[in-house]
Amino acid sequence: xxxxxxxxxxxxxxxxxxxxTLTPGPDMTLFLGKTVTAGRLAGxxxxxxxxxxLVVHTxxxxxxxxxxxxxxxxxxTVLKVVGCLYLLxxxxxxxxxxxxxxxxxxAVRPEPLRSVYLKGLxxxxxxxxxxxxxxxxxxxxxxxxxxxxxxxxxxLGLWFIVVAxxxxxxxxxxxxxxxxFLKRSPKALRAFDWGFAGVMAAFAVKLVTTSGR
Length: 213
What we know:
- The protein is mainly α.
- It has one domain.
- The radius of gyration is 18 Å and the shape is globular.
- Keywords: Cell membrane, Membrane, Transmembrane, Transmembrane helix.
C-alpha cells in the first residue's frame, strides 16, 4: 500500500509518538483537569476535541508539505534541515525549562460536554507549537525522492492519534492518581523532560546523518 511507510519508519515514529503523548502539555493538562474537576465524560470530551484538532493539523501539514515537495525537493530538504534545528531547540528547551503542569483550581461551574469539546479543539488548533511541530516533525520520516510522500505524511499524522488513544484513555481513567503523582513528583516530570529531549535530539541526529544519502 502506497500510503504505508517502511516498518522501521513506523516503529521509530511510534516511539516518538508515545513519548510525545506521555509528556505533559496543554492538551494533557486540559483533559486531566476536566476529568478531575468534572468527571470522565468531560475528560473524554476534551480529548476528543484535541484529537479533532490533530486531524486538522495532519491534513493541512500533509497537503502543504506535499505541495512543497512537488514544487521543489530543495525547498523540502531545507524544511527538513530547519526541522532538525527545531527538534534540537525543543530538546534544549525541555531540559532548560521543564514541563509546565497545572490543573484548574477552585470551584468549577458545570460545563456542557459540547463546550468542553470545543475548548479542547480550540486549544489544540490555536497552539502554535503544535502547528510548527507538525510541519517540521513529519518531514523527518519521508524521503524527498518518495513519490508517495503525501499519503505517507497523512498516514503518520493519523497514526500519531491512534497511538495516543490507548495512553490517553488510560490517563483519563486514572486521572486523579496521575494528576496527584505528577504534582507531587517533580522528578517524574524531569524524567519526561529528559526522555522527550532525548527522542527529539535522536531524530535530529538521524536527519543529519541521512540527509546526504
